[in-house]
Fold this sequence. Notes:
There is one protein chain. Helices cover 58% and strands 4% of the residues. By secondary structure, it is mainly α. Among the domains are: 152-207, no CATH class; 211-310, 3-Layer(aba) Sandwich (Aspartate Aminotransferase, domain 2). Strands 2-1-3 form a 3-stranded parallel sheet, with helices on both faces. The longest helix has 33 residues, at 3-35. The mean pLDDT is 85.
Amino acid sequence: xxxxxxxHGETIVSFYWSILYxxxxxxxxxxxALLRPYEPLVLIALTLSGxxxxxxxxxxxxxxxxxxxxxxxxxxxxxxLPRMRSIKAQKLREVKxxxxxxxxxxxxxxxxxxxxxxxxxxxxxxxxxARQLSSSSAVDWKSGRMSGTVYPANEELSHLLIxxxxxxxxxxxxxxxxxxxxxxxxxxxVRMCLTMFHGDENSCGTMSSGGTESIMLACLAYRNRxxxxxxxxPDMVIPESAHTAFDKxxxxxxxxxxxxxxxxxxxxxxxxxFKAAITNRTxxxxxxxxxxxxxxxxxILEIAEVRSLAGR
Length: 312
């Protein structure tokens, strides 16, 4: 390109820039003339109100966009209709009755205690009441057919567990200085689990009271990490088959839960849909090994590669 072409190009840019500038000045003049009758304080108030309204609308759209939220709103609207209110009330009465019957179990003749007794009970009376209540179980869990609930082994193990319970009944893991043996055993169990998953010397863990708390603690760690990165309304991407505790954690910790459908043949998470669900606010990716409903293992390595590509 020679000097003449360059000059010609600059002239064209200058020409269109002058048109744009004149148009902006004219628009600004008309806007000022339109707003001149109003007090500055009124204009400031209207501006702030507009910003607030837009942010509120965007937040509402974001909530409706969350999977399941629009279904909840639709359900609430339908059940608020006059005809549906009576049906809803009837169903609630049936549920309350069912809960009451399940609480009393097979022994409705036993008193339902709602306050501390005025007189103490003997040890034999307490044992007798406990045996009666124990016999009211609706399922024979000792047969080993309650997956995810009870895992009975054998009498020898049961006897050992009773002995350990008796030995450590009055220890308090919160006070590790008073009960160092409990701290040591917890640390050993954590390290065993880390070794199982090839954790190095920098890996760590903690002891929880059960599966739900373990999941919530993991979500808490990722939520806090997201906040350090400036993400204050994060989301997590999880398969439809993931444990329901992730929904609990999302509700408690203000993490948007994005559930991804499964492959209809393998029942593993749909990897393509999983990748598409990741946003710039995603703080954690979830996979199951195995997942709760069917015992199927999600494609862990492929999901790990997705995480690497995401750069977080």
